[in-house]
Each structure stands twice: as structure tokens, then as C-alpha cells.
Amino acid sequence: MPVSANMGKFIVIEGLDGAGKSTQTEILTEKLLSRGVKVINHAEPTESEFGKMCREVLSGRKKITKSQLALLFTADRIEHNVSATDGINMHLQSGDTVICDRYYYSTLAYQGVDVGIDWLKSLNLGCEDIRKPDLCIFLDLTPEKSMERIKANRNADEIEIYENLEYLKSIRKRFYNVINSLKDSENICVINADGTVDEVASRIEKAVNAIY
Ligand code: TYD
After folding, report:
1. What is the whole-number distance in angstroms between the Cα of residue 45 and the centre of ligand 1?
2. How far does residue 31's CA lie from ligand 1's centre (Å)?
3. Which of 30, 32, 114, 117 could join 66 in a cystine, given CB atoms 3.0 to 4.6 angstroms apart?
């Protein structure tokens, strides 16, 4: 039997802040677990040293250049793939499914505003240590709804530098551009995240069923 037959699946959940990634990831995880699929939940930025620095910058506590931030996210992603203790590769090779909240699509959309998209693409898609997911689900929500949900769920001092309406509008456009440019070479599924939790969950389940 080829080795790949035993490999777990790598699923990425993307979307604007507030699109429901965490809730939907939890539901999807439960559904897969109930089918006997072992699931590992990860998120980027990770808890690596690189990931921690990304968070310091996002919160405004630390200042670095935009290109440095793009490199930090990418370095964090490489560590995330190759880590011998909790890496994506390791888990997939054990046959487990990894669901990751955000991946290189976020770098292309968020950092692509500030630094060259071609540079970011070659850094991420051209890197042999950065794996292409089996499925990327993009939870799509209007920036207005996204902002409403962010405000309802957080204190004002917890809202990060990327969370304002104009910014979300431009990020959504960026995500669309990124998805359009990758849709022929990757398995990306855009899912309408404006619905009840159950409605969105069953849209996601349909997309996920197609890769098992
Ligand atoms: P966080 O609050 O950790 O999680 P989330 O909003 O996904 O629930 O925020 C992560 C932030 O990091 C989010 O605003 C998007 C940003 N980000 C980038 O700018 N580039 C990246 O490559 C990644 C992975 C995230």
C-alpha cells in the first residue's frame, strides 16, 4: 500500500475575524471524532517563538516592519510543518487529521496589503517545508457582519490592529483575489458563513466529506 494511503488529511479553515472559525472548527472536530477520525486542532500563528512574536506585533506591543512580519508568519509556518513534537507532517504521518485555523492564505491576504504578493507567494508556495492542504475552507461573511460579531464577542481593548471595518473590507477583497489565483491548483471551498451555526456546519461537512 502506498504510504500516502495512511496519511491523515490536512484541512485549513480561513476567514475574516469573526466569521465563526472557532465554533465551526469545534463542530467539525466533533463530527470527525464521532466517525473515528483522530483530529488534531492547530492554529496559526502557533505557540512557537515566531508565533509569539507575531502576536506581540498584532497587539501593537512590538513594532517591526511589514516585511519582517510577513517573514515571521512564514517562519512560524515552517516550524509548524516540521516540528518534531507537534508538527503537521508528524501528525499526518501518524494518520491523524490536522485542522488548522488560518494558514498561508492569511499571510497572502493580510500581509499582501503591505508587501508584494508575488514575493509572499514564492516564500510560501515555493517552500518545500510548507505543505499544501488537502482542503481549504474559506468561511465567507460580509465585513459588516464580521465586525458585528467581533464587537459582540470582545472587549474594546482586545480588538487587534486588523479589526476595523475598512480593513476587513480590503482583506475580504484580498482573500477573494488569493482564492481566485489559487483555485485551479488547490482545493479551496468558499462557504457562506452567514447562517445558523448548524446550517454553516452542514455546508462544511459536505465539503469535508469529499476528501475522505
Ligand atoms: P487570533 O486572534 O490569534 O486568531 P483568529 O482571529 O484567527 O481567531 O488572530 C490572528 C490574527 O493574525 C488575525 O488578525 C490574522 C492575523 N494573521 C496574519 O496577519 N497573517 C497570517 O499569516 C496569519 C496566520 C494570521
Report:
1. 6
2. 25
3. 114
Per-residue pLDDT tens over the stretch 30-78: 999 999 999 999 999 999 999 999 999 999 999 999 999 999 999 999 9
CATH of the domain at 175: 3.40.50.300
Nearest-CA residue for atom 24 of ligand 1: 44
d(CA 54, CA 48): 10
Q: What is the pLDDT of residues 101-132, one digit of tens each?
A: 999 999 999 999 889 999 999 999 999 999 99
Evaluate whether residue 3 is within a structural domain: no
Report the distance separating Cα 98 and Cα 84, nearest Å: 15
Cell 481593548 belongs to residue: 157
Let me know if residue 5 belongs to a domain: no
The CA distance from 143 to 173, in Å, is 10
pTM: 0.93
DSSP bridge partners of 138: 14, 190
The parent domain of residue 144 ranges over 10-209
Residue whose CA lies nearest to ligand 1 atom number 8: 17
The torsion of the CA quartet 157, 113, 166, 152, rounded to 10 degrees, works out to -40
Query: In the structure, which protein residues have their CB atom closer than 6 angstroms to any atom of ligand 1?
Result: 17, 21, 44-45, 58, 73, 101-102, 106-107, 110-111, 160, 162
Residue 65 lies in a domain: yes
Q: How many domains is the chain built from?
A: 1
User: How far does the centroid of ligand 1 lie from the alpha carbon of residue 124, in Å?
Assistant: 16
Residue 19 lies in a domain: yes
Contact 7, 95 (CB under 8 A): yes
